[in-house]
Design a protein that fits this description.
The protein is of the alpha/beta class. The chain has eight helices and ten strands.
Length: 241
């Protein structure tokens, strides 16, 4: 039986009179790559911010590893890459990673190894001592990913992780996502890129704050007699092909 790592139970979220999430129910299993697919403004970021404890639901509850969020005891199990890079531009990449490593209690040789390993993963080893202010937008996204991976989290939550990254490196990063999955890591990836959606084990389609369908890319295409996830999304969303 699949083990649920994430359980979203009848969650809604409102900001004033505007409701941005409507009664979301969702289970995410251990060791899968789960994609949240939807256009900008659909509610993807609001949902993942709740999962990492940065926002609270207006109604409903979120559970990670069977514990209600937010929970400080889970910080070592979760890696989070926000849509906006949370980096210190006046510091070098190495200094940034050393700071984040200290938050997770990584010390000495293990800290040095994890910094080296994650920088190799995102193809930034040659830029370790450069100031982040000199990084391009794509390099900053890659450094943010390295920071999220430092402590080898069991659950990795990535909000639009490949925005601004060139196609070749994007393919390489997805290859590394698969390696993490094989090691037992659970990944949640928000995206509006259809070819990335096809790479996920399962998808949750979100439109206007509502979860309109959940399933593997093949299941969603078969149920709607669609040739692509994009077509399936349009069918579930009530649009036309």
């Amino acid at each position: 039986m699949d083990e649920n790592i994430v359980s979203v139970r009848n969650v809604s979220k409102s900001f004033g009179k505007q409701t941005v999430l409507h009664n979301i129910d969702l289970e995410i299993n251990k060791g899968e790559i789960f994609g949240l697919l939807g256009p900008s403004g659909a509610g993807k970021t609001t949902l993942v911010k709740q999962l990492v404890g940065l926002e609270l639901p207006t109604a409903g509850e979120n559970y990670l590893f069977s514990k209600k969020m937010p929970s400080l005891t889970l910080i070592e199990k979760i890696g989070y890459m926000a849509q906006s890079d949370a980096l210190y531009n006046e510091l070098s990449a190495k200094e940034n990673l050393e700071f984040f490593a200290s938050l997770y209690g990584l010390k000495g040789q293990l800290r040095r190894k994890r910094i080296q390993d994650t920088m190799e993963l995102v193809d930034l080893s040659g830029h370790l001592n450069k100031l982040v202010s000199s990084y391009s937008g794509g390099m900053k996204r890659r450094l943010s990913l390295a920071a999220a991976l430092l402590h080898q989290p069991e659950l990795l939550i990535l909000d639009e992780p490949t925005v601004g990254i060139d196609p070749v490196l994007r393919q390489s990063i997805w290859s590394d996502f698969y390696k993490l999955k094989k090691q037992g890591t659970t990944l949640i990836v928000t995206t509006h890129v259809m070819d990335e959606a096809e790479k996920c084990d399962r998808l949750g389609l979100i439109r206007d704050g509502r979860l309109i369908a959940v399933g593997s890319p093949e299941e969603l295409k078969n149920k709607t007699n669609s040739a692509s996830v994009e077509e399936a999304f349009l069918v579930y969303g009530g649009g036309t092909r």
